[in-house]
């Protein structure tokens, strides 16, 4: 998205959730499995991010948190998905936490359930210690049991939330962040023209081409959103 990526934006938002005072700044961990080489290269020059490589299998969200138990060292975890774009106030979400219950920032007015969109969740330190570092999701092993026991603190998102699970939503998120302008990655070459499109770093739009509502990743991959 411009000079940054979805994961860069998520790192900034998580860091900001803990305030500006040095004693409140929390380190950020990024779990890596799919696209490992690209992610490692992207963060190779950054010292403010802890990279946790999941191998040989992806651990799912719950397994990933469990795998970070040693690094968390008794702390709770604020968990987000990098492909969820939003303008929610994570600082307030963290600051108003009661310190004990699972807290979930959900999308929509309906009660929290298995189909709810989730912007962020706080996994208390007691829960971090109970999770197993094996493939598993937070809904199955933490959220549902705590919800059944009436112990989940639900907060409803009030701003824009876009889950970039499809090319159409990915494009919509980019255009929302850019104010409707096309997003051109670093090193992209525009010999043709684009409207409401995303051109990834290094991609080329050839002379005579006119891309509208498109995502171009490289010479082999262009998605037209219709």
Please outline the helices and strands:
Elements (H helix, E strand, L loop, with lengths): L5 H11 L11 E5 L3 H8 L5 E5 L6 H8 L1 H4 L4 E4 L3 E3 L3 H6 L6 E6 L9 E7 L1 H6 L7 H11 L3 E5 L4 E3 L3 H12 L4 E2 L4 E2 L2 E3 L2 E2 L4 E2 L4 E3 L1 E5 L2 E4 L2
Parallel strand pairs: 1-2, 5-7, 9-12, 10-13, 11-14, 12-15
Antiparallel strand pairs: 3-6, 4-8, 5-6, 15-16
Helix pairs in contact: 3-7
What can you tell me about this protein's structure?
The chain folds into two domains: 6-161, Spore Coat Polysaccharide Biosynthesis Protein SpsA, Chain A; 164-224, no CATH class. Helix content is 29%, strand content 27%. It has eight helices and 16 strands. The protein has helices at 6-16, 36-43, 60-67, 69-72, 90-95, 125-130, 138-148, 167-178, and strands at residues 28-32, 49-53, 77-80, 84-86, 102-107, 117-123, 152-156, 161-163, 183-184, 189-190, 193-195, 198-199, 204-205, 210-212, 214-218, 221-224. The protein has a four-stranded mixed β-sheet with strand order 3-6-5-7. α3 packs across α7 (138-148). It starts with 5 loop residues before the first helix and ends with a strand.
């Amino acid at each position: 998205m411009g000079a940054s990526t979805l994961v860069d934006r998520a790192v900034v938002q998580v860091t900001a959730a803990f305030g500006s005072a040095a004693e409140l700044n929390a380190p950020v961990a990024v779990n890596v499995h799919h696209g490992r080489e690209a992610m490692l290269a992207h963060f190779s020059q950054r010292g403010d991010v802890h990279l946790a490589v999941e191998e040989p299998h992806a651990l799912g969200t719950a397994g990933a948190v469990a795998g970070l138990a040693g690094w968390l060292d008794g702390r709770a975890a604020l968990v987000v998905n990098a492909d969820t774009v939003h303008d929610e106030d994570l600082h307030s979400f963290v600051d108003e936490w009661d310190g004990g219950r699972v807290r979930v920032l959900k999308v929509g007015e309906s009660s929290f359930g298995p189909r709810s969109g989730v912007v962020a969740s706080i996994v208390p330190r007691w829960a971090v210690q109970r999770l197993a570092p094996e493939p598993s999701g937070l809904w199955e092993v933490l959220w549902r049991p705590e919800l059944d026991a009436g112990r989940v603190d639900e907060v409803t998102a009030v701003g824009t939330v876009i889950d970039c699970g499809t090319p159409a939503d990915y494009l919509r998120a980019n255009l929302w962040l850019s104010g409707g302008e096309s997003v051109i990655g670093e090193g992209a070459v525009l010999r043709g023209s684009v409207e409401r499109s995303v051109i990834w770093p290094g991609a080329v739009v050839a002379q005579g081409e006119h891309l509208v509502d498109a995502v171009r990743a490289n010479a082999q991959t262009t998605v037209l959103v219709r």
